[in-house]
Amino acid sequence: MADIAQGTGSSAAGPKLAILAGGGTLPARIAEAVRGRGREVFVVAFDGHTDPQTVVGLPHLWSRFGAAGTILRRLHEEGVGEVVLAGPVKRPSFTELMPDWRTARFLARVGTRALGDDGLLRAVVREVEEDGFRVVGLHELLRELLTVAGPVGRLVPDAEAERDIARGIEVARALGALDVGQGAVVQQGIVLAVEAIEGTDAMLGRCAGLTRPGLGGVLVKVKKPRQDRRIDLPTMGVTTVERAAASGLRGIAVEAGGSLLVDRAAVAEAADRLGLFVVGIEIPQ
Question: Dihedrals φ, ψ of 240, to 5°?
């Protein structure tokens, strides 16, 4: 796909923003919101991860993950001041990276310190900032996406669901402390599944054959204890609700102030229609 060049610079609305775009709709939502405030954007789209519709009509660069030198050089050429990471990506293997010299130097420096997703992303953020850019979080650009405490739809968890939520928080935070994942599914006190590199959707798919008779389980998602809020906050939307329902769950609990809720009204409608509760939970830090 061809690159598009459409000017550089900044405005009174803020410095030019580069969106490192993963999958889903978040990158496009950010671009629309930022441009609506009169701010310039530039999108870095990744082969095999970014939805091609994300970059339609926007200045952009298609790249592979291993081309860090090319990406950073282009951001400087475009006059970018700030960078945001948005949308899920399937973590590439080292062989898939096909590193250029800049990426090879980065991988040699971080070594095994970045084996977990959070460790790798923190190392990426440091690399980008050392090159002169400021990395910002999604919640700084779209504050309305932050999950607030309380129910999203009409339904609320009962006493047994509250116990499952408490157990899920305990398990998910333990996973997060090891930089493994952000979520767990608990039913009647039994841990049915935990999230690792496969992601939430695949974890929910596994649960379909593991549910026990009786009241359904609960999906719990929380940020990792030492997580940088600018990167990889737990995110859920309508698809998560639909897959939780298809897996036989009866509710979802996500961390208030530490997760992103994409399209709250649509999530509430889907939860009510499918008979699930969705609730923002406050977690002592």
Answer: -60, -45
Q: CA 83, CA 222: separation in Å to the nearest integer?
A: 24
Q: What is the pLDDT of residues 92-122, one digit of tens each?
A: 555 555 555 566 666 566 554 554 455 566 7
Confirm or reject CATH 3.40.640.10 for domain 17-141, answering yes or no. no
Specify the DSSP element, H or E, that contains 103: helix 101-110
Distance, in Å, from the CA atom of 258 to the CA atom of 105, rounded to the nearest integer, reads: 33
175-194 pLDDT per residue, tens: 988 888 889 999 999 999 99
Between 3.30.450.40, 3.40.140.80, 3.40.630.40, 3.40.50.300, what CATH number should domain 146-281 receive? Answer: 3.40.140.80
Helix and strand numbers (H, E) in the chain are 10, 13
Helix (H, G, I), strand (E, B) or coil at 193: strand
